[in-house]
Amino acid sequence: MLITEGAPVSQEGTGYLYTPGIYTDTQEAAWAKVTQAVHDRGGRIFLQLWHVGRVSHTSLQPDGSAPVSASAQRAEGAFSFAIGPDGKPGQQPASMPRALLTTEIARITDDFVTAARRATRAGFDGVEIHGANSYLFEQFLNANSNQRTDRYGGSIENRMRFLLETIDAVASEIGMNRVGVRISPFGRLSGMQGYDDEAETWLAVAKALEIRQPAYVHLSDQLTIGGEAMPKGFPAQFCETFTGTLIAAGGFTQETGEQALKDGALDLIAYGKPFIANPDLVE
């Protein structure tokens, strides 16, 4: 099974130049060639649906506007691959975002639904909603980056609302058995910081996902990509709460991956860097 790189669901959701989106007819047609090639070899492929939120730059946004986020709070230390002042592509500090209006949030959920519909037409076996690695959904989940006072801010229930509404809406379009969810509990990339009820928040997410039973939950451990490992004991707590199909990624070798499967907590192991370096990894 292949999971693609993140595909922005809109121009607004883009944070890096040259990433393949899923919001135009041309993109949809191009992806159809990819899915056909995978299916011709007997494989399965899910499209990762992506909105970076504040980890973006004005040069990538429609009409050069500010990126959007849960709150008007800059992603300190975060960089976007964008167009610099000299007109050339390169690493640029993420721009100051604006807070999404309450009435705008449904629009972004609709962008994910439309992207899932396009993905299905393009032949994907399912989609993975990217809620990890400091991007938009995590910006809502994190109590530091989310300073809202409406129904999408404050309590754990409110901070989870955007992610869960989007999962439910996408599932209504293509079926929950074709929807995966990627999360990175205790993520610290791109300026994300800890907060008081962090463990409770992620276990509440696990409980909500247990009720929904998506195709899978994909846990990203950030230790190998410049972040921090999840606290000792937390993965076991997560597994006790979410009992569905669980994928993990984060520096596994063949040996450690096999051992993790034998230990019983995980159902599937994801490989990124080794597969990129060697497209014949499976063989």
UniProtKB/TrEMBL annotation:
EC? Answer: 1.-.-.-
Instruction: Name the domain of life.
Output: Bacteria
Q: Which InterPro entries match?
A: Aldolase_TIM, OxRdtase_FMN_N, Oye-like
The question of whether Ligase is a record keyword is answered with no
Q: Which Pfam families match?
A: Oxidored_FMN (PF00724)
Which keywords are on file for this protein? Answer: Oxidoreductase
Q: What is a GO molecular function of this protein? A: FMN binding
The NADH:flavin oxidoreductase/NADH oxidase N-terminal domain covers 1-282
The molecule here is called N-ethylmaleimide reductase
Top-down, what is the taxonomic lineage of the species of origin?
Bacteria, Pseudomonadati, Pseudomonadota, Alphaproteobacteria, Rhodobacterales
Whichever gene encodes this chain, its name is: nemA1
